[in-house]
Write a structure and sequence with these properties.
The protein has 73 residues and is mainly alpha-helical. It is built from three helices and no strands. It starts with a helix and ends with a helix.
Length: 73
């Protein structure tokens, strides 16, 4: 996220002013807290249930993605 922000600042320096600093800081904080909650919840689920459901989910979504790519060509 920091890399994307730095790239945006480099490419569009006029679009970002010091007035936006609070909004950007809030975005970083909210993103960090959300990521921590999601990771903690996921690790808690995997500890209790294992990876079986997650594995099947990845197989199904991956297969659907490959079918969608094949149909698009």
């Amino acid at each position: 996220m920091a890399g994307a922000f730095a790239c945006y600042l480099y490419n569009c320096p006029v679009a970002m002013t010091l007035d936006h600093l609070g909004i950007v800081a809030m975005g970083f904080v909210v993103s960090f807290i959300t990521a921590m909650v999601v990771v903690k919840t996921f690790l808690s689920y995997v500890t209790r249930q294992g990876f079986t459901l997650f594995e099947w989910w990845r197989v199904i979504v991956g297969t659907l993605g490959l079918v969608a790519l094949a149909m698009g060509r």
